[in-house]
Amino acid sequence: MDSLIPFTTSGSLVDCVDKKMLVLLRDGRKLLGVLRSYDQFANLVLEDTVERIHHENSYSDIGRGVFLIRGENVVLLGEIDLDAEDMVPITPAPIEVMQQLNKQEIDERRRRDNLKAAILFEARGFCKEGGEGDGY
């Protein structure tokens, strides 16, 4: 019977509804929440969503509640194994510390990307295209 159902991108998400998911967005944010709904464009509705910021072996979560994600911004979507989740060796840290570390990391990545773009433009003749969030 399953072989009669055509495999499509949105159809493959039906088994993920009501499960805890990790979503990686084009801008680098990582969201964890329960997938409640989706459509044919892979737009997602997450409930009880948190944005996870991590640095080395520490993390902090920022509560986001219900989150609507436009499908074109999704880089990765994966189910979280609830049994294995507790065995990951990372520890919670104060949000203020993690936000500062995250900001420094983003600034450093942006500096490196600008340097690479300048080298490619000046030395190799590449054009200056793309922008924020075009890393994927």
Description:
The protein has a single domain (2-124), classed as SH3 type barrels, CATH 2.30.30.100. It is α+β, with helices and mostly antiparallel strands. A hairpin with a 5-residue loop joins β2 and β3 (44-55). The protein contains 2 helices and 6 strands; from the N terminus they run βββββαβα. One of its GO terms (cellular component) is Lsm1-7-Pat1 complex. Belongs to the snRNP Sm proteins family. Residues 8-83 form the Sm domain.
List the helices and strands and how they pair.
Elements lengths: L19 E6 L4 E9 L5 E12 L2 E12 L4 E6 L2 H4 L5 E2 L2 H30 L12
Please give a quick description of this structure.
The protein is of the alpha+beta class and 136 residues long. Helices cover 25% and strands 35% of the residues. It has helices at 82-85, 95-124; strands spanning 20-25, 30-38, 44-55, 58-69, 74-79, 91-92.
Oligomeric nature of the chains: single chain
Main sheet makeup: 6 strands, mixed
The number of helical runs is 2
The share of residues in extended strands comes to: 25-35%
Question: What brief labels describe this structure?
Answer:
alpha+beta; 2 helices; 136 residues; SH3 type barrels; six-stranded mixed beta sheet
